[in-house]
Amino acid sequence: MTGLPYLSVNALTKYIKRKFDADPHLRNVFVKGELSNVKVHPSGHIYFTLKDDKSRIQSAMFRSNASQLKFKPEEGMNVLLTGDVNVYEASGQYQLYVQTMQPDGIGALYLAFEQLKESLGKEGLFDPRWKQPLPPLPNKVGVVTAQSGAAIRDICSTIARRYPLAEIILFPAIVQGPQAAPSVVKAIAQAESFGSIDVLIVGRGGGSIEDLWAFNEEIVARAIFSSKIPIISAVGHETDTTIADFVADRRAPTPTAAAEMAVPSKEELFERILERKRSLYLSLSNQIKHERRRLSVCETSYPFQFPERLYRPFTEKLSVLEDRLYRSGREITTKRKMEHQRLDRILAFYSPAQKIGEERRNIDRHTERMNLAANRFLQTRQERFTSSIRMLKALNPLQVMERGFSVTYQEGQVVNKAAQLQAGDSVQIRLQDGMVEADVKSVRLNEEGEK
């Protein structure tokens, strides 16, 4: 059995795939069915199951083809597909690789229009509360449309006829084809950055749904919604309706109607001015008549016939009030004076000057007492000093020496007894007028002495 030619799974799958590749009936097949298990991969590929009431087939639509779709594939949608049938080797399953997809029974563009309209409606982009009012007298009108075409001619001629004061500023844009939507968005951004546009007309002339499709793109709708400038949508003819019409602040059926909507008519303005002039004249005339009647009534009224009687009660009342005011003022002044005097006395009692005077008098008394005590103390001390001087004079040996006495010293010591000396000792004798050096020849003592 081992010699039999067994195939690997991969080899068998490759063989089947080559059979599919070689079959011309599996190329560019046309299939219709219902979408199921729709999954949009982040890469942009779309994977789904195509089924009918009896069978189903796995299908895939790669990003290069999916990016061309004008609508969003959804669960349960019936579609018409073209593509190739082939084998996916990794799983061994055959798949339908879709190249084109159209709704079954409804146009793809119409379906895309309805889907975007529903999505933006749920977000609130069509809500009237976001609509901006149009300026009544715009100075500058911006226009986003093709540089050459009937739309810009109609808008310019209409504005020049109705309101020549307005300045028209064109922001050229491509309005048809694959580059139209980005071009319109760029032109709206340029109008906003311009800085002084009062109202902006965005649109183009009529055409098929394909011609007008740029104004059904989501990026255009969001650019219109985000604009700070009021926008009038003027796309196609009166029967044409685009997403831009729902998002714009005002929708005009044609570019000419948009121009009429953007600016007032000079004839209407003149008529309005004349009407207001007439109304103002009539109002002022009626007011003057009314005031004249009031003046006449006032002139013939009793108070104006006898004006002194009109103000006599007020004069009397004024006199009474003046008298009351004078008495009250005098009473208040008297009370205030008495209060002032009372406070003056209290202030004088507690015045620092009073206290300073008292303290100065106390200081003077104490100073006088201290001087007397000091004088008495000095006198006493002087008397005692004098007595001490007299006593010192009396005891001063020099005073005694004046009477003939002297003091004897031996080696600096006072000799007060003869017994302290011997013959041959040297002594110093202090006299009144000087000192004498002497030698002792002999010593004689009194009878009480030892020698």
Distance between the termini: 180 Å
Q: Which structural category do the helix and sheet elements fall into?
A: alpha/beta
> How many DSSP helices?
13
H-E order: HEEEHEEHEHEHEHEHEHHHHHHEEEE
Give the oligomeric state of the chains in this entry, treating copies of one chain as homo and distinct chains as hetero.
single chain
Proportion of helical residues: 40-55%
Number of E-type strands? 14
CATH class of the domain at 114-264: Alpha Beta
Largest sheet: 5 strands, mixed, barrel
From the spread of the alpha carbons, the general shape counts as elongated
Q: Let me know the CATH homologous superfamily of the domain at 114-264.
A: Succinyl-CoA synthetase domains
**Contiguous uncertain segments of 5+ residues:** none
Strand content: 15-25%
CATH fold group of the domain at 114-264: Rossmann fold
CATH architecture call of the domain at 114-264: 3-Layer(aba) Sandwich
Q: Provide the gyration radius in Å.
A: 67 Å
Mean pLDDT: 84
Question: How do the strands of the widest beta sheet line up side by side?
Answer: 1-2-3-5-4
How does this model look, in words?
With 451 residues, the protein is of the alpha/beta class. Among the domains are: 9-106, OB fold (Dihydrolipoamide Acetyltransferase, E2P) (Beta Barrel); 114-264, Rossmann fold, CATH 3.40.50; 398-451, no CATH class. The chain is built from 13 helices and 14 strands. It has helices spanning 9-22, 63-66, 108-123, 150-162, 180-194, 218-226, 243-247, 255-262, 266-299, 302-305, 307-349, 352-395, 397-401, and strands spanning 29-40, 46-51, 56-61, 78-88, 93-103, 140-145, 167-172, 199-204, 231-235, 250-251, 407-410, 413-415, 426-430, 435-439. A five-stranded mixed β-barrel has the order 1-2-3-5-4. β11 (407-410) and β12 form a beta hairpin. α4 runs parallel beside α8 (255-262) and α5 (180-194) packs parallel to α6. The radius of gyration is 67 Å and the shape is elongated. The protein starts with 8 loop residues before the first helix and ends in a 12-residue tail after the last strand.
